[in-house]
Design a protein that fits this description.
Blueprint lengths: L1 E2 L13 E2 H13 L7 H14 L3 E5 L2 H11 L7 E5 L4 H9 L3 E5 L10 H13 L6 E5 L8 H10 L4 E4 L7 E2 L2 E2 L6 E5 L12 E5 L2 H11 L22 H11 L2 H19 L5 E3 L13 E5 L7 H11 L5 E2 L15 E2 L3 H8 E4 L7 H16 L2
Parallel strand pairs: 4-5, 4-6, 5-15, 6-7, 7-10
Antiparallel strand pairs: 1-2, 3-11, 8-9, 10-11, 12-13, 13-16, 14-16
Helix pairs in contact: 1-8, 2-8, 3-4, 9-12, 10-12
This protein binds pyridoxal-5'-phosphate (PLP).
The site of pyridoxal-5'-phosphate has 14 residues, from α3 and α4.
Length: 382
């Protein structure tokens, strides 16, 4: 039994919480550890490190906070530039601004909609000639698929540029035998309410570099020095996750395999329901691994179905069903119009054609079929 029992609105990706989560939070409250310190937090960090294939995890108040401190740990500061894929949630690029640096936006490839390695190689080659290499590369695993870890990591090694992977959306996905978040100097995951597992708001930084984990943990707790009085040699932040949220996170993380299986199953059912339609594609696994099923996206060929994402979203909304356009590319965002961008058109096309369909792990087969019927009848009415 999950709570609350499904209401009338069908949401895109609502949290799925049951008795195990309630018991975990109840136990944390009764334990007296009502602070950003405690046994559940320590245990949750061990679980996060295990599920991302890392040695160390630092649980933080959000994925954005983890990105901010991660960039700082890579030495990114004022006057620097950081490469970021243009198809992502704005928090990836905002974190670069929080660190005082400027994002350079690169387009994505067609197989996973993630940072295009060929374009990355091109841009670094050109910038190297004019001595303008970026301070870091942020790769993003968008919509639950790992980016091309092998090629991107290799290119970053070649130019000796630190790599940070924003794995906020890909927890539980794989690249070959490697886990999402296992590549790069460090990676970041998110436990926001709409992600595949949630703490009601939270995130973590994961790394194999002990120095990075120690520094980030210190910065996140107001940079307190280990002395009895409050002593600060560096500027700090209040970015730690609470022990209560960590208890919820532990119970959720234990259910990650169940959530991945259900979300992948929902995707398969959509695929089956749409299989007779030409001009509708649902991206599945990338060539290099398994995705976690986070959000199923319908891509509609505009020649067959003009304006389909808009019309389908409005039709679903009339039935009290939430759906959402694909991330609007960062190079199109008013706040980033003056930032450098290398654009091939893949992200623009994804935004123009795509619609994220309800994909929450608590959806029943009949919910998937109801959504599918509305999509199909809207398409056929064009
Ligand atoms: C959700 C998300 C973030 C931010 O995580 P929060 O925990 O919401 O701060 C960063 N990057 C991507 C790609 C995300 O989807």
């Amino acid at each position: 039994m999950n709570f609350p029992a499904s209401g009338s609105r069908l949401f895109l990706s609502p949290p799925v919480v049951g008795q195990a989560e309630i018991d975990a939070v109840d136990a944390a409250l009764r334990s007296g550890w009502i602070a950003p310190i405690g046994p559940a937090l320590d245990a949750f960090e061990k679980d996060i490190a295990a599920v991302t294939g890392r040695k160390y995890a630092v649980a933080l108040s959000s994925g954005t906070a983890a990105l901010h401190l991660g960039l700082r740990a890579l030495g990114v500061s004022a006057g620097h530039e950081v490469i970021v894929p243009t198809l992502t949630f704005a928090a990836s690029a905002f974190a670069v601004k929080h660190a005082g640096a400027e994002p350079i936006f690169l387009d994505v490839e067609r197989e996973s909609w993630n940072l295009d390695p060929n374009l990355l190689r091109d841009v670094l080659q050109r910038r190297n000639l004019s001595d303008r290499l970026p301070a870091a590369v942020m790769a993003v695993d968008v919509f639950g698929r790992t980016c091309n870890y092998a090629e991107i990591a290799e290119i970053c090694r070649e130019y000796e540029i630190p790599l940070l992977v924003d794995a906020a959306e890909s927890l539980g996905a794989t690249f070959g035998n490697a886990k999402a978040g296992s590549v790069g100097r460090l990676a970041v995951v998110s436990f926001n309410g709409n992600k595949i597992v949630t703490t009601g708001g939270g995130g973590a930084l994961v790394t194999d570099d002990e120095t990075v984990s120690v520094r980030v943990r210190k910065w996140a707790t107001q940079s307190r020095e280990p002395v009895p009085w409050y002593e600060h040699e560096e500027v700090g932040f209040n970015y730690r996750l609470s022990n209560i949220a960590a208890a919820l996170g532990q119970a959720q993380l234990a259910r990650l395999p169940e959530f991945v299986e259900r979300r992948r199953g929902i995707h398969k059912r959509y695929q089956r329901n749409f299989s007779h339609l030409d001009g509708v594609t649902l991206m599945g696994d990338p060539p290099w691994g398994l995705w976690n099923g986070w959000l199923t996206i319908g891509s509609f060929n505009p020649d067959s179905y003009p304006e389909a994402p808009i019309r389908v979203r409005e039709a679903l909304e009339r039935q009290n069903i939430e759906s959402r356009p694909v991330w609007k590319p960062m190079h199109r965002q008013p706040v980033f119009l003056s930032n450098p961008a290398e654009i091939t058109g893949v992200a623009d096309e994804a935004f123009k054609r795509g619609l994220c369909l309800p994909s929450g792990a608590s959806m029943l087969d009949l919910d998937v079929d109801r959504v599918s019927e509305i999509v199909i009848s809207t398409l056929q009415a064009s």
